[in-house]
Amino acid sequence: MVFADRADAGRQLAGKLTGACKQKGIILAIPRGGVVVGAEISRQLDLPLDLVIPRKIGAPHNPEVAIGALTQDGTTVFNHQLLAVLGLKEKDVAGLVEEQRKEIERRLVLYRGDKEYPDYSGRCIIVVDDGIATGYTVIAALRWIRQKFRPEKLILAVPVAPVDSLDRLEKEVDQLVVLMAPEDFYAVGQFYQDFRQVTDREVIQLLKERRAVS
């Protein structure tokens, strides 16, 4: 299976999510690509859209290698096995963590302005991204959501994730919806015909169209 684009993936996910939320639902999408997927689910299921913004922490001198992730309240999730292999401790990457904390703050203001989150406490929350590799970034997001909102039900919905990430992800949610879990996984983009970069402007516009109200 290959998705035409993120909107196509969102439509297919929406079909699997029909009826998943018995209580009033909310979609929290991960920018940037996850917002396009989430906006399509939002349209199909008539659910409001908002954002959750975790950030990957890349290894020193090799930022593409994820050694962990950071979420909006500063909570970090580290791959301690990889840190050990690289001969690193958490204190060694404190500067990288701070860089990503500032980037989260920048994106929050850029995308959401200075508005506080509505009270999503006790609701059914669907977390959406356009795909998952290691899973650490989305795990950071899920833990922040659990702590902040204590949802009645927490669902993770993604088009594609590798088989070896599913065990980690299932432990963090009440329901996991994944359309594909291939064993031969190299990158999320290999499962899309159109995987062009999503712009900040697109994120802002989609959020404006489908934004939740307090």
Task: Characterise this structure.
The chain has 214 residues and is α/β, with parallel strands linked by helices. It has 2 domains: 6-54 and 116-210, Rossmann fold; 56-109, Ybab, Chain: A (2-Layer Sandwich). Helices cover 39% and strands 21% of the residues. It has helices at 6-17, 33-45, 80-86, 94-112, 136-149, 163-170, 200-210, and strands spanning 25-29, 49-51, 55-59, 62-70, 76-78, 124-128, 153-160, 175-180. A 5-stranded parallel sheet has the order 2-1-6-7-8, sandwiched between helices. Strands 3-4-5 form a 3-stranded antiparallel sheet. Helix 1 packs across helix 2 (33-45) and helix 2 runs parallel beside helix 7. The longest helix has 19 residues, at 94-112. The protein is globular and about 50 Å long. The model has no long low-confidence stretch (mean pLDDT 94). Residues 12-176 form the Phosphoribosyltransferase domain.
For the sheet with most strands, the description reads:
5 strands, parallel
Number of strands: 8
| Uncertain residue segments | none
Strand order of the largest sheet: 2-1-6-7-8
Mean pLDDT over the full residue set: 94
Radius of gyration: 16 Å
* Structural class by helix and strand composition: alpha/beta
Into how many domains do the coordinates divide? 2
How do the helices and strands follow one another from N- to C-terminus?
Answer: HEHEEEEHHEHEHEH
**What general form does the structure show?**
globular
> How much of the polypeptide forms β-strand, as a percent range?
15-25%
Q: Treating each run of at least 4 consecutive H or I residues as one helix, how many helices?
A: 7
Give the CA-CA distance, first to last residue.
38 Å
- The CATH architecture of the largest domain can be named as 3-Layer(aba) Sandwich
CATH fold call of the largest domain: Rossmann fold
How much helicity do the residues have? 25-40%
* CATH class label of the largest domain: Alpha Beta
